[in-house]
Write a structure and sequence with these properties.
It is built from 4 helices and no strands. It is mainly alpha-helical. The longest helix has about 40 residues.
């Protein structure tokens, strides 16, 4: 394949990528994110194809144009990688379970909550103390039996 045709093919793929990027921004509002993830996968596939085409173009480029071709290709690739990372971060953020936090309690509400917790725990503490006291009495009386 000649160099001009490879450049045209690459430009075509880049155009498709730009089209997908526009569509993926619209798909961000899709509550199920199915469309978003599908477009993201298509973009990743296109970038792999583009990488292969770039290698072919580089192999057919004249010696004096190699550096410019490499710089242009690298710049485009880095820009796309940044966009992909942002899109993937958005996807991860959307798929993680959302934890609703309650607003911070005022000092009055905090003291009320502490008081309620203490009151609720009081019977438990008393029953534990009672059992412990009962166990101690039984042991004490048992010890007295052995002493006599």
């Amino acid at each position: 394949m000649n160099l001009q045709k490879l450049h045209s093919i690459r430009d075509g793929h880049r155009g498709v990528i730009q089209h997908h990027l526009k569509n993926i921004e619209d798909a961000k509002s899709d509550s199920t994110l199915i469309e978003f993830s599908t477009i993201l996968e298509a973009l990743e596939t296109k970038m792999k194809i583009l990488e292969s085409i770039n290698e072919k173009i580089l192999s057919k480029t004249e010696v004096d144009g190699i550096q410019e071709e490499m710089l242009t290709t690298e710049q485009y690739t880095i820009n796309m990688e940044i966009k992909f990372r942002k899109l993937k971060a958005f996807m991860e953020q959307q798929t993680q379970p959302k934890v609703q936090s309650s607003p911070p309690l005022s000092l009055r509400e905090t003291s009320s909550v502490v008081k309620s917790v203490n009151e609720a725990a009081s019977p438990v503490v008393q029953s534990v103390n009672f059992r412990w006291d009962s166990d101690q009495r039984e042991r004490s009386s048992g010890d007295q039996q052995y002493r006599t």
